[in-house]
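From the methods appendix. Each design record in this collection lists the discretized structure first, followed by the designed amino acid sequence. Records were kept in a plain field format so they could be parsed without special tools. The example shown here is representative of the layout used throughout.

RECORD:
C-ALPHA CELLS (289 positions):
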C-alpha cells in the first residue's frame, strides 16, 4: 500500500475525511478475525441452543461461501449477524432454510429436549415440521393481491385453506393496522406496512425460529424502529428465537442479545451485542463511528 493510500484508506484522495471502502472494511475486519471457539459460542447461549450449526461448509454450486461456520442461538434469544458486503451473511440464513448446497457440517434444532438434524430438509419441511421461517430481504409481497390474500399465502402449506384463513385472522387480531387494510392491494401499503405484512405472513405458520434478512432495508427511519419493536415483541412476548442479518449494524446490535461478525465466510468475532457495540474496532468498521 502506498503512503497516499494509507493516508486515505478508502482510496479517496481529496481533502475531506474519506469514507472507508468496502474492500478496506473487509481487509481490516479480516485483520481483527481470531479463532472463535465453540466454548465461547456456547457461553453466549448459556444453555442448550435452540439452533446450532457445526462446521458448515456451504455455497452455491461449485462455489463454497461458508468455510466451517459454527453458530449457536438459545431459545427466545436473538442473534444479529453483521459484516462486510459479500461476507456470506445472507448465505447463513439461506443455508438454515435450505436454499444452498451443503457440502459438509450439520444444522440442528432442539425440539422437546432433543436435537433434530435438519441439515438435509427441504424448506417446506423446515417450515412445516421444524418451525423455521424465513423472511426475505425485500419485495416478497405479491403487489397485486390484497393484504388478506397475501396472508393466506403464508399458510399455503396447511392442508386446508380454512386453516390458513383462521391463522390469518389471528394475525389480523394482533395487528389492527394490517386488518384495517385487508381488502387493499399490497402495492398501496407504505414501506413500513409492507414489512409488517412480510413478517406477518411468516407468522401464519406459527414458527418458533424467525430468520430475518435486513429488516430495516429500504425503510424510512421512522419505520425502522417500528419494525424492530415488532421483532422485539415476537422475541420477548411470544418467545420466538430470532436470527437477523442487518446492514444497519447499530440498530441490529441494539436489538439483539448476541452478535457475530462474519468475514469472508468465517466467524471473525462473537460477543454479547452490548460488548460488540462498545468495541472500538467494530464501531469504526461497522457502526460508522
Ligand atoms: N444465489 C446465489 N448464487 C451464487 N452465488 C451467490 C448467490 N447468492 C450469493 N452469492 C454469492 O455468495 C457470496 C456471499 O453473498 P451473501 O449474499 O451471503 O453476502 P452478504 O454478507 O449477505 O452480503 P450483503 O451485505 O451484500 O447482503 C457473494 O460472493 C455472492 O455473490
Ligand atoms: Mg445479504
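DESIGN:
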Amino acid at each position: 500500500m502506498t503512503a497516499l493510500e494509507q493516508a486515505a484508506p478508502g482510496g479517496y484522495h481529496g481533502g475531506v475525511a474519506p469514507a472507508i471502502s468496502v474492500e478496506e472494511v473487509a481487509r481490516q475486519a479480516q485483520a481483527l478475525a481470531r479463532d472463535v471457539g465453540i466454548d465461547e459460542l456456547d457461553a453466549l447461549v448459556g444453555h442448550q441452543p435452540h439452533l446450532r450449526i457445526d462446521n458448515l461448509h456451504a455455497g452455491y454450486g461449485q462455489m463454497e461461501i461458508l468455510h466451517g461456520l459454527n453458530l449457536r442461538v438459545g431459545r427466545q434469544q436473538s442473534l444479529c449477524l453483521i459484516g462486510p458486503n459479500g461476507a456470506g451473511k445472507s448465505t447463513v440464513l439461506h443455508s438454515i432454510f435450505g436454499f444452498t448446497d451443503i457440502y459438509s457440517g450439520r444444522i440442528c434444532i432442539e425440539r422437546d429436549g432433543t436435537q433434530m438434524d435438519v441439515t438435509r430438509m427441504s424448506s417446506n419441511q423446515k417450515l412445516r415440521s421444524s418451525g423455521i421461517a424465513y423472511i426475505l430481504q425485500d419485495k416478497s409481497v405479491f403487489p397485486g393481491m390484497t393484504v388478506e390474500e397475501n396472508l393466506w399465502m403464508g399458510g399455503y402449506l396447511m392442508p386446508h385453506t380454512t386453516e390458513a384463513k383462521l391463522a390469518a385472522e389471528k394475525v389480523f387480531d394482533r395487528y389492527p393496522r394490517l386488518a384495517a387494510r385487508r381488502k387493499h392491494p399490497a402495492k398501496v401499503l407504505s414501506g413500513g406496512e409492507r414489512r409488517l405484512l412480510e413478517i406477518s405472513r411468516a407468522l401464519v405458520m406459527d414458527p418458533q425460529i424467525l430468520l430475518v434478512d435486513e429488516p430495516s432495508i429500504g425503510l424510512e427511519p421512522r419505520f425502522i424502529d417500528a419494525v424492530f419493536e415488532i421483532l422485539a415483541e415476537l422475541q420477548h412476548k411470544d418467545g420466538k428465537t430470532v436470527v437477523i442479518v442487518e446492514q444497519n449494524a447499530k440498530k441490529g446490535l441494539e436489538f439483539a442479545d448476541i452478535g457475530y461478525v462474519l468475514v469472508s465466510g468465517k466467524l471473525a468475532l462473537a460477543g454479547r451485542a452490548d460488548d460488540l457495540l462498545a468495541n472500538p474496532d467494530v464501531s469504526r468498521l461497522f457502526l460508522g463511528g
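APPENDIX NOTE: The beta strands are 49-60, 63-74, 78-82, 101-111, 114-117, 132-135, 209-213, 241-245, 258-263, 266-272.
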